[in-house]
Amino acid sequence: MTATQERPTQAGETRILTLIQAVTEAMREELARDDRVVVFGEDVGARGGVFLATAGLQAEFGPRRVFDTPLSEASVVGAAVGMAVRGLRPIAEIQFADYMGPGFDQIISQAAKIRYRSGGQFTAPMIIRTPSGGGVKGGHHHSQSPESYFTHTPGLKVVMPSTPYDAKGLLKAAIRGEDPVIYFEPKRLYRAAKGEVPSHDYTVKIGEGAIRREGTDLTLVGYGGVMPDAERAAAALAAEGVSVEVIDLRSLVPWDRELVLSSVQKTGRAVLVSEAPRISNFMGEVAYVIQEQAFDSLLAPVGQVAGFDTPYPYVQDKVYLPGPNRITAACVKALNY
To answer: How many domains does the chain have?
Structure first.
């Protein structure tokens, strides 16, 4: 079953939160619910993290549950692996996704393989939270989108929300699961994305996409920071009489093949959007599955809008990112094929 909107699943009070407020609230509630949950990383304690995602948590739960680490991503990830194997539920923050390199071996060689290599005797229920993507003039060391590195590694789950509702629900689901989860947070949406979030407890199932806008002429698929621009492009095309269905994957591993394929079989056209560089972009996998399993439904080649195959630029965010104009142009090309 796939979600079609980000509405509460049961009656109850809701509040309007930003995406980063939803992330903070998810951690606060899980720290209170489960004594095994710990939060740590560089500057996450008294300061509350570089983006203040953990603000107030150390004061509320104490320095044994929420604490700072040395400036060593390898140590942060390695500690998370050890804690997870020994029964804790660690939430490790890497300040920027660009800095995950030093901890890469711990992630792909240890966390991702513990369940398999132990025959299920051990699991690594850990979360690595990290701000990802561009749009904040952070330059090439603070704006990259490295999700494809991790989607290539069996044993990891990879998610990237674009709304406050999903940010909270997916993080809670990740904390309560038994697998290591790489949880990318699109930093340009931290305070730009606002939406209804239920006061009651809920989770969003990892692996289910969401239809943000229903349509019949073309399927537009994205995730994370590109979603607001994808919806703007769809709205612009709607003004010209074109009906675009907009799908938010939300989860990359696993991803919602059923939702995407059913939409493409209906519309006959697909354009895939992400801000990572084009070569080895995760959307290449989505495109392959579409042509493999929905080829007879296609009325045009699958289109793709992505970042460029260059280091992320310091000042040309708007040129690098797949904004509404580039997305609209790709959709028009598919429609006119």
So the answer is: 2
316 pLDDT band, cuts 50/70/90, is confident
- 21 and 157 belong to one structural domain: yes
The CATH number of residue 272's host domain is 3.40.50.920
Indicate if 171 and 32 belong to the same structural domain.
yes
For residue 101, the 8-state DSSP code is: G
205: amino acid identity, one letter: K
Sequence-ordered list of residues with C-beta below 8 angstroms from that of 54, at least 6 positions apart, any chain: 24, 27, 39, 41, 44, 45, 48, 66, 93
pTM above 0.90, yes or no: yes
The Cα–Cα gap between 141 and 151 comes to 21
Report whether 225 contacts 307 (CB < 8 A): no
Q: Is 297 exposed, middle or buried (0-12, 13-18, 19+ CB in 10 A)?
A: middle
Active-site entry in 140, 141, 142, 152: 142
Question: For the segment 187-217, what is each residue's pLDDT rounded down to a tens digit?
Answer: 999 999 999 999 999 999 999 999 999 999 9
Is 9 part of a structural domain of the chain?
no
124 part of a folded domain? yes
Residue 11: pLDDT band with limits 50, 70, 90: low
Which pLDDT score is estimated for 192?
Answer: 96
β-bridge partners, 39: 66, 91
**200 classed as catalytic:** no
